[in-house]
Amino acid sequence: QVLLVESGGGLVQAGGSLRLSCAASGSWFSLNAMSWYRQAPGKQRNLVATITRDSSTNYAESVKGRFTISRDNAKNMVYLQMNSLKPEDTAVYYCHTIYQYLDAWGQGTQVTVSS
Length: 115
What we know:
The protein is mainly beta and 115 residues long. The chain has strands spanning 4-7, 10-13, 18-24, 34-39, 46-51, 57-59, 67-72, 77-82, 91-99, 102-105, 109-114. The strands form 2 sheets. Strands 2, 4, 5, 6, 9, 10 and 11 form a 7-stranded mixed sheet that branches. A 4-stranded antiparallel sheet has the order 1-3-8-7, with no helix packed on it.
């Protein structure tokens, strides 16, 4: 069974920073790639960043140089450090993995960036 619980969202001014956390259940964690997605109102859900089980990372072009994904396998945690936030980063952010060939999602955490 997979349980993903995000936290750390909130309201921040443009140029500010937030760190999102995702707590994952289960012994599968260290074997899985983990991702952050985001979905703005009225828009599709888009990939923000991915970290593989060996900690290789990939980022959407829109967040490169500003966001950093990381993981702590000992704690079953994945993080998204977001710096230099922009109003267009406003969205619900979701933690994601693929478990037994199925998508698994957290409940999401709201990030709002004011101008």
